[in-house]
Amino acid sequence: MKKSKIKNQKSKLSIFIPLFFGFCILFLSGCADRDRMYRESREVMYTICTITVVSNSEVKAREAIEAGFARIKKLERTLNFFSPESEITAINRASGIRPVKVSRETLGVIEKAVEVAEYTAGAFDPTVGPLIKLWDFSKQTSGSSLPPSEEIEKALKLVDYKKIKIDIPVSEIFLEKKGMELDLGGIAKGYAADAAIEAIKARGIKAALVAIAGDIKGFGLRPDKKPWRVGVQNPRQSENRSNIDGEDIFASLYLKDMAVSTSGDYQRFFIKGGKRYHHILDPRAGYSTSDIISVSVIAPHGFIADGLSTGIFVIGIEEGIKLLESMGFDGIIVDSSKKVFITKSLEGKIKIEKNI
After folding, report:
1. First-to-last C-alpha distance (Å) of the chain
2. Residue 92 CB partners (closer than 8 Å, separation 6+)
3. What is the dihedral of CA 156, 162, 163, 169, to 10 degrees?
4. How far apart are CA 83 and CA 62, in angstroms?
5. What average pLDDT does the segment 178-205 reach?
6. Is 31 helix (H, G, I), strand (E, B) or coil?
7. What is the pTM of this model?
8. Which among 337, 330, 292 is positioned nearest to 310, based on CA atoms?
9. Is residue 2 predicted with pLDDT exceeding 90?
10. How far is it, in rounded angstroms, from Cα 124 to Cα 161?
11. What is the 3-state secondary structure (H, E, C) of 227-274?
């Protein structure tokens, strides 16, 4: 297994910050010395992002928070699948026609997406764009319809990450087949969390946590000298939520100098004929096929945690746990019967707060 590259993507101080899509950040009270936690939440990448920094200066803290949000906003402009002005859209428009020159950063993110695709043998595939466009997950009711099977079959012929040609010396990307489309939604938020943390570090901040929905990256220690504590959202939230600030979590763990990402079938879905169809599509089948309802991956970098949580959702529990353990990463998987599976090295490091 080759080593992960370092550069480089289903809301998420007082005492608590709720994370609406995958994680909630849990804080214990107490400060040491003059250090304090400063926090701000904004809407970016179609979700809520919360940046928390530890500093003994409010001015420096606010400057670092602004730097973090600026990095995320820049990535939002360049990597947006739905924006007509993004570099990703420019690549997609030229598929099968010509290579497109892109920024070094966009090139690097695409390299990382291909890297994760290789790890998962295509279960995560950044060329899933043609399939994504067929599905409408804006309605969580039976009013949504399934794409015609012939349209799915047609789109499947355009999904193949091996047809992404990356020319590093000239910073160009070429999709070999006309109609192919990159969608980096399965890795962009994790990468953005990585990038925001680096921007914050450059401002001299000693500890911070960036949470973009269910994609979280942290470094350093809180003012009480303890690691950041995060909670894994219950994928089947009850109406009577039993946790602080109304967030329904079922497990918690400590996070230090690591990233964590959660993918779940509860984020974008609709019910049809008694079956739940969700946005984590199997790029080999064209629709959601998994018996899994939630995957959380803990890894050194947000981009790989984000991509692997998507890929493992597709490849299944047994192969997913095996893959994570072979890479030295940790994970939490919940199946449709609400049974929880964890990697061996996570035993004793995770606290089950309640049954799902």
Report:
1. 34
2. 129, 175, 180, 181, 182
3. 150
4. 29
5. 97
6. coil
7. 0.86
8. 292
9. no
10. 9
11. CEEEEEECCCCCCCCCCHHHCCEEEEEEECCCEEEEEECCCCEEEECC
